[in-house]
Automatic annotation (TrEMBL):
First and last residues shown, out of full length: 246 to 612 of 612
Domain of life according to the entry: Bacteria
Protein role: Catalyzes the first step in hexosamine metabolism, converting fructose-6P into glucosamine-6P using glutamine as a nitrogen source.
Compartment(s) of residence: Cytoplasm
Active site positions: K362
Alphabetized GO MF terms: glutamine-fructose-6-phosphate transaminase (isomerizing) activity
Subunit structure: Homodimer.
Protein name: Glutamine--fructose-6-phosphate aminotransferase [isomerizing]
Native species: Muricoprocola aceti
Residues annotated as domain SIS: 44-183, 216-357
Catalytic reaction(s) noted: D-fructose 6-phosphate + L-glutamine = D-glucosamine 6-phosphate + L-glutamate
């Protein structure tokens, strides 16, 4: 096992470091000569043009990819998107648009609820597409079309590189669908592709800074509650950051849409409660910053995740971690990295079994 960890203490850290390669491989599986080619997925231009509704269905972190993808698909393609937990979708007799596309996202391709949701969609005669990591898995075999993520085997229960490659798959699909449907011009299309191709190096750059995050995270080992807040895509990132934190550190954590704070969560803040604000979307920056100020005035200890340049956050937050600039639509791929590291280092500081957290399984094949 030590050999398989390639010098890292845990599989999770190894897999965190494999993200630049996993993302690069997945990008290059569909980007050729500066254009996206979905022929391997089996999605034709006619099919892309006829889609009138997208349903994204998944569990766990894959569901969080769906929450981010909803923003991106809707922004770029203007096709309405619903994101649903597979365990809910399968039992609610969903009304599905016959020209809709059901997209199932799953690392293992074996999650019981996601597989059942896929079967439910097929029973209703709607087109299905799976974003899957494991070749030949049940979901990959049964879906009409498959977009394979090239994350390679993921051992750690808490997903990192599979999540990152799932995001890439949704970006590539959204950008290509937007272009084919003439919602973006060639300049924007090429610009988005070139921004995507820069993501692996930017992820690498964030990983260079991991000691700073370790220093901060190690001090949070005694926290009882952690709140993650953000708006828009920053909310989607918060959901994943919170899940990473709770599953491996056993600290209660919640992700809240920043604007909802006043509707309940703010009453839980006490002197020293850690609030992690994700503020990468320029148009929403001031709004969430003012929520952070509100948290601070109630005693919260603040950590901010934002893009380079937003240095005024240091006036408010006690600790700030910066990510490189990218197109705002792709920022999830960068902002999630410090949050993965944060969860990891808190877990290590508490001496927990990072790779095999209690009560959790890598693949949930029973309900
Ligand atoms: C488990 C794993 C998660 C994963 C979820 C969905 O809970 O621990 O990391 O996101 O299942 O799994 P899937 O294989 O369908 O992506």
């Amino acid at each position: 096992e030590a050999a398989e960890k390639a010098g890292y203490e845990h599989f999770m850290m190894k897999e965190i470091h494999e993200q630049p390669k996993a993302v690069r491989d997945t990008l290059h599986s569909v980007i050729k000569d500066d254009a996206i080619d979905l022929s391997g997925v089996g999605l034709t231009e006619e099919e892309i043009k006829s889609v009138s509704q997208i349903y994204i269905v998944a569990c766990g972190s894959a569901y969080h990819v769906g929450v981010a993808a909803q923003y991106i698909f809707e922004e770029l393609t203007r096709i309405p998107v619903r994101v649903e937990l597979a365990s809910e979708f399968r039992y609610r007799n969903p009304i599905l648009d016959p020209n809709g596309l059901v997209m199932i996202i799953s690392q293992s391709g074996e999650t019981a609820d996601s597989l059942a949701a896929l079967r439910e969609a097929k029973k209703k005669g709607i087109q299905t597409l799976a974003i899957v990591n494991v070749v030949g898995s049940s979901i990959a075999r049964e879906a009409d079309k498959v977009f394979y993520t090239l994350a390679g085997p993921e051992i750690s229960v808490a997903t990192t590189k599979a999540y990152s490659t799932q995001l890439i798959a949704t970006y590539c699909m959204a950008v290509q669908m937007a272009y084919v449907r003439e919602m973006i011009n060639i300049e924007r299309y090429q610009n988005l592709i070139s921004e995507m191709l820069k993501l692996p190096d930017k992820i690498e750059k964030i990983l260079y800074d991991k000691e700073r995050i370790q220093w901060f995270a190690a001090k949070q080992a005694n926290a009882h509650d952690i709140f993650f807040i953000g708006r828009g895509l920053d909310y989607a990132i918060s959901l994943e950051g919170s899940l990473k934190m709770k599953e491996i550190s056993y600290i209660h954590s919640e992700a809240y849409a920043a604007g909802e704070l006043k509707h309940g969560t703010i009453s839980l803040l006490e002197e020293g409660t850690l609030v992690i604000g994700v503020l990468t979307q320029n148009d929403l920056y001031e709004k969430t910053l003012s929520n952070m100020v509100e948290c601070k005035s109630r005693g919260a200890y603040l950590c901010g995740v934002t893009s380079y340049g937003n240095y005024n956050m240091e006036d408010t937050a006690d600790f700030v971690t910066y990510i490189p600039k990218t197109d705002p639509l792709f920022v999830t791929s960068l902002a999630v990295i410090p949050l993965q590291l944060m969860g990891y280092y808190v877990s290590v500081a508490k001496g927990l079994d990072v790779d095999k957290p209690r009560n959790l399984a890598k693949s949930v094949t029973v309900e």
